[in-house]
Amino acid sequence: MAPPPQSASIPPSGGRIGRLISRPLFWVVAVTALFALPLTRSILRRVPPPAPVLGNVPPFSMTDQRGQPFGSSDLVGKVWVADFIFTSCQTMCPLLTDKMGQLVHRSRQLGPEVHFVSFSVDPERDTPARLADYAGRYHADPRKWSFLTGTLASIQAAVVDGFKIGVDRHKTADDFWDIVHGEHMVIVDRGLRIRGYFDSSEASLNLLLEALGQVTNEPVSDTPPPAPHPLSSRTAP
């Protein structure tokens, strides 16, 4: 009696591709590549250079919207954004203040070490009470956002000589002071060093927020604190 015929071996379906994906090694390599791709992209992503140091803010002593002394010593150890306004301005200042309010809101995740400071370039008329009323229109929290006034000499020293922000004051024919001033916002680091100037455009504000986060996350040891100044001491409220 003849032996039963041997059944023919059936090759794996799918040809070479089928044989490839049936091997465990293929899946090990595929899964490894899948997880490694995002990591590789992160490593190869360009890291932005540190914000440059553009100058130093000199020590100053002024008064905030609560009528309390406020100076550069109150800002040591903080990263802050400064702008320059006056309350009777009807053109650019309301826009600048609105933009600052947006920055306060958008930067809230950076924590309490970030502060905002608006310097009045019309200190003779902008009393603390007037600044408080102005700040209230924008729901400004004085713990986060300070509006400062002082003597004309102190404003000149801080704004013009320190920040290099131009201010032109002249009387009009009807005996009214017309004030023209720079409209940039300025980042200052923990050591009172200027780290960037930004205009009020949406694109520039996005760059400001990026730089603000970068400066805030710098190691504290990279920014040596300035020497204390006797004129910038504060009386507790």
Task: Describe the 3D structure.
This protein is an alpha+beta fold and 237 residues long. It folds into 2 domains: 30 residues, no CATH class; 178 residues, Glutaredoxin (3-Layer(aba) Sandwich). It is 33% helix and 19% strand. It contains 6 helices and 10 strands; from the N terminus they run ααββββαβαβαββββα. The strands form 3 sheets. Strands 1-10-9-4-5-6 form a 6-stranded mixed sheet, sandwiched between helices. A two-stranded antiparallel ribbon has the order 2-3. A two-stranded antiparallel sheet has the order 7-8. A hairpin with a 5-residue loop joins strand 7 and strand 8. The radius of gyration is 30 Å and the shape is elongated. The relative contact order is 0.19. The C terminus is likely disordered.
Question: What topology, given as strand order, has the largest sheet?
Answer: 1-10-9-4-5-6
Q: What's the number of domains?
A: 2
Percent helix: 25-40%
Quickly name the level 1 CATH class of the largest domain.
Alpha Beta
Question: What can be said about the biggest beta sheet?
Answer: 6 strands, mixed
TL;DR?
The protein is an alpha+beta fold and 237 residues long. 33% of the residues lie in helices and 19% in strands. A six-stranded mixed sheet has the order 1-10-9-4-5-6, sandwiched between helices. Strands 2-3 form a two-stranded antiparallel sheet.
Which key terms come to mind for this protein?
2 domains; 237 residues; elongated; 10 strands; alpha+beta; 6-stranded mixed sheet; disordered C terminus; 6 helices; two-stranded antiparallel sheet; Glutaredoxin
